[in-house]
Design goal:
The structure is a single chain. With about 140 residues, the chain is mainly α. It folds into two domains: about 10-85, Helicase, Ruva Protein, domain 3 (Orthogonal Bundle); about 85-135, Rossmann fold. The chain contains five helices and two strands; from the N terminus they run αααβαβα. It has a two-stranded parallel sheet. β1 (about 90-95), α4 and β2 (about 115-120) form a beta-alpha-beta unit. The longest helix has 19 residues, at about 60-80. The radius of gyration is 16 Å and the shape is flat. It starts with 13 loop residues before the first helix and ends with a helix.
Amino acid sequence: MTDVTAHPLQEITLDQQVALHTAATRLAEEFDGIYGTETIERFLQTSYDQFATAATTANYLPLLAERFARQRLRALARVEGHHRDGRPVVLFLCTQNAGRSQIALGFFTHLAGDEAIAWSGGSELGIEINPYATAR
């Protein structure tokens, strides 16, 4: 990945640059024939930027960015009709995607296994887990 920019408060280390380049290579292989290198790098970079703005530690940012970019690219491929396998798609939404929809996604994925595809999302960016999602 050639054009990796850091969050203003955080420098990207050499290890992170290597990890992001490796992630871009893996994603390019996975989406070969569907999306070009520029699209994949842009998704990876914007995914990294989203996590970097709220991160207190940078250790896992490349991994999180790769996973999120993969989810976004898979979702786009489905919407654009590049991937149809007959499985239903479920979307769990809450206002901040800060716990409730992610918990629902986890339960659903555990119960449905590979029989369905599910995503979670929110209408606003949540920067911490919603306390009501973890309250007893």
